Amino acid sequence: IRLPVFSSAHAHFICKMAAVQGGLVDAVEEKTIKSEPVADATANNSANDARAPSSSPGSGVSPGVNKPAAGAAEDQQTLLAVLQFLRKNNLSESVEILRREAGLPEDSLDQKGGDSTGTGLGGPEADGRTDAGSLLSRVTVSSSAPSKAVAEDQPDVNVVLSAYSQQGDPALYEVYYSGLKKFIETVLDCHRAELSQVFYPLFVHMYLELVYNNHENKAKAFFEKFSGDQECYYQDDLRVLCSLTKKEHMRGNETLLDFRTSKFVLRISRDSYQLLKRHLQERQNNQIWNIIQEHLYIDIFDGMPRSKGQIDAMSGSLAGEAKREANKAKVYYGLLKEPEIELPLDDEDEEAENEEGKPKKKKPKKDNMGSKSKKQDPNAPSQTRIPLPELKDSDKLDKIMNMKEATKRIRLGPDNLPSICFYSFLNAYQGLTAVDLTDDSSLIAGGFADSTVRVWSVTPKKLRKVKSAADLNMIDKESDDVLERIMDEKTASESKILYGHSGPVYGISFSPDRNYLLSSSEDGTIRLWSLQTFTCLVGYKGHNYPVWDTQFSPHGYYFVSGGHDRVARLWATDHYQPLRMFSGHLADITCTRFHPNSNYVVTGSSDRTIRLWDVLNGNCVRIFTGHKGPIHALAFSPNGKFLASGATDGRVLLWDIGHGLMVGELKGHTDTIYSLRFSRDSEILASGSMDNTVRLWDATKAFDLETDDFTAATGHIHLQDNSQELLLGSYMTKSTPVIHLHFTRRNLLLAAGGYNP
Amino acid sequence: MLSVTTQMFVRLQVMIQILKDMGITEYEPRVVNQMLEFTYRYVTTIIEDAKIYASHAKKSNVDADDVKLAIQCRMDQSFTSPPPRDFLLDVARQKNQMPLPLIKPYSGPRLPPDRYCLTAPNYRLKSVQKKVTPSTNRISVPRLSVGGVSSRPATPTLGAPSVQTVTKVTAPVSLTNQRFTVQIPPASQTSTTKPTTASTPAVSNVLINPSLIGSKNILITTSMVSQGDSLKRKHEDDDDYDNL
């Protein structure tokens, strides 16, 4: 028997290992009372023994062997483990002696799991304590035995999966679950909604345990009996689970493994929690208690229990809700100060208007837009928080153009809706997978399923390539119109096609200075194209799996990408490797967006959560749950304070980033929402969806609320059901799903989609 | 035995039922055919692999273990899954500890080093006829390279049809300020016969600054290169390219 070296605190672990590896599984069969399939010879079940007796109804074991808490518990466990070990090795006399001397009661073996984790549950410090008890249960069957219990050290699937290796009698799972159901039905109304949250994670974990331990038929029966009770928004997950009936099926499914290792977070009020705990501990329901301890994280709050509506609004994600601490970090959501730019070129305009030819006095006007106050906005990051590229002359000119256009901007409102200009891509045959427009709306690019990227000019000005080097040599460099001369007239065309990817192009993004175009594809690469030469400059390799979305930062130079590997990466155009990796999602990242101040990145994922990441240090600063389907659209409001998100469930959710709360819900769409955009001054929110409509919502009214202290502290939200009032207009297209929305600088709404007859 | 068409029909029905069970209700008719093709390919691959393993183990029949092994190997090969979460968290932690690099000002197009870009020419023109001039006269060897380092003087030519060898950039490029140096042949094509000192190839360094709109900092310099000049290009032995 191999006895790895451990500290004394892990002595019980050693005993377990010995038992397992000695293969003396059958030795303790006399303890397993009921119909547990003995034929299941996997060594997993040796770990069952401790628990099995407790779960048997007929064993007459008094479950209330309430061991003293904290300190003594560890020693008791060690003793129990030693006892177990001796028994397994058929050293019955030693067993008796030890028992007598240690003063352990007759059936003391049963309570090994239950009480070790009985203390300190629920609160944030739960994890430390549960580890001690759950160590016992995580007996690793494979040869990776010597290492410490859990999966931190090695990405070994076996270790991860083997946490399911303890269990009670499979035939009794149904009994436990029904028992819990009955209990919760009899509980007071105000607590029932909260306690019902427990059903789904419990169901999934119990099912997975049955599958992992090869009780296929029992698992199927369990599933059939109880899957209908679950909330409707979990149906997709349940369908996936339904097809998972063998242990081997679990192996390749990363999302499932992540679900199993991360703790499902539930937010329950203290009163409800006490009820539940009391019930589970006084019955023979330690099995359920164990599962709750191990796989659930119960975030307790003091206060009124939440109503069903409130709970439904926030739940739906694969990992439960968000812990309150997850949303407490300070987020600098303010905008960066605009640099002061002189406007020396104004005189050109003035001269043009001045037909009399009077020489005008050239007076440089100072830009007084946006930098009125010298004080730093306390919610804004400092200019140097992350390094940003300095403004080139061309960028300054762009800003001046921007400001000029802004003065001509139409003020939108409920009585002044924007005109919508829709760009339909014909003959795309459902191959149009991504669209983007430049900020000044001069170029439109489309990514297609045939791996091409096409760029069109929206204005009458055609697209031209830069001349070849030979020709460039021959032009006069000092002339004023050198910028026109470097362009080759022979290559002028309405559109250009960019070839290079080897898979459908799922994400596309123009750089703010209109020099580069990024495209991300199913082949796992992100390509940077030059819009001067219309050739590919760089291929960024890092994701080895489809990259679903990419976006340039509003200041250029940085870009973010997210894909199937559940990680979002931050790149800079001059580094061939990513600068930051944002890891934490449980499923694919489907949408990535930069905050207007370039300091934060928001990612929406198939695990139905939205996470806000800090570019400076890669930390996740906000987790927003509430969507019931994968998120496909994200939009920041221009003032940086709010976020809007759209998903396959057809709802648009509105979030306050500073407080980390949901502030609104816009119902109306009937199909997946693929695009969201705020108007230039945040008055209107436009949403485009697969149901072939564009809807306009009143953003000023939707965000016009005060967040009181109670809401901020507890996260209880009271959503008003005012979607109908906020809906300003709904516009149907002719069977064209709306993939992209863009407000021009003058607040004209442009929309794009592929015509799909 | 059912006829072939009936068998196919049965298979179609099975596939449609599978799609329904997995909750997929809307799909094009082609999807069913694609799924059938995929399953056929998958199953035959697995069974063939299993046959190989069985014969390797000197068994006469293929049994479940062989199939299991075949499936496992295929899973690791074609159907890989992304790395597990704890590994990703670990890597992310390491990467996120490094501070964001500072951005150099005024550095033209911000692109990674050339070897990570796709901007190098990926072709070369083979020389059509061998030169009769003695090998000492290295000047006549034409070159096109992107900013290579040279140790000997050489004449770059481009465009002359007869004696041409365009070399691929194989060595790391030394770029100054990330400029793309493209060497342009001199107007005269007499370089092939003139001695070194006399023929001074004109080389233009074309600096392409992508921020072209509104800025006048396009730098197009024409510099004359002579022997041992600071302008670098890689000089490679002519003979290497004759053995193709």
UniProtKB/TrEMBL annotation, chain A:
Enumerate composition-biased segments (Low complexity): 39-65
Q: Mention one GO biological process in which this protein takes part, according to its record.
A: transcription initiation at RNA polymerase II promoter
Q: Where is the composition biased (Acidic residues)?
A: 343-354
> According to the record, where are the WD repeats?
425-466, 498-533, 540-581, 582-623, 624-657, 666-707
Q: Which GO terms describe its molecular function?
A: RNA polymerase II general transcription initiation factor activity
What ranges does the record list as Basic and acidic residues composition bias?
A: 102-113, 366-377
Q: Where is the protein found, in the record's own terms?
A: Nucleus
| Keywords, alphabetical | Nucleus, Repeat, Transcription, Transcription regulation, WD repeat
Task: Say which domain of life the source belongs to.
Answer: Eukaryota
Gly residues biased stretches = 115-125
Listed GO CC annotations: transcription factor TFIID complex
What's the family? Answer: Belongs to the WD repeat TAF5 family.
Can you say what this protein is called?
Transcription initiation factor TFIID subunit 5
| Protein source organism | Gouania willdenowi (Blunt-snouted clingfish)
From TrEMBL, chain B:
Q: Which InterPro entries match?
A: Histone-fold, TFIID-31, TFIID_subunit_9
Query: Has the keyword Acyltransferase been applied to this entry?
Result: no
List the molecular function annotations (GO) for this entry: protein heterodimerization activity; RNA polymerase II general transcription initiation factor activity; transcription coactivator activity
Which GO BP terms sit in this record?
RNA polymerase II preinitiation complex assembly
Pfam families to which the protein is assigned, alphabetical? TFIID-31kDa
Q: What is its main location?
A: nucleus
Looking at the keywords, is NADP present?
A: no
Its keywords, alphabetically, are: Nucleus, Transcription, Transcription regulation
Where does the UniProt annotation locate this protein?
A: Nucleus
Q: Would you indicate the residue range of the signal peptide? A: none
Q: Which domain of life is it from?
A: Eukaryota
- Look up the record and report any one GO term of the cellular component aspect: transcription factor TFIID complex
In the record, the note on similarity to other proteins reads: Belongs to the TAF9 family.
Name of this chain's protein: Transcription initiation factor TFIID subunit 9-like
Q: Where does this protein come from, organism-wise?
A: Gouania willdenowi (Blunt-snouted clingfish)
UniProt lists the gene as taf9
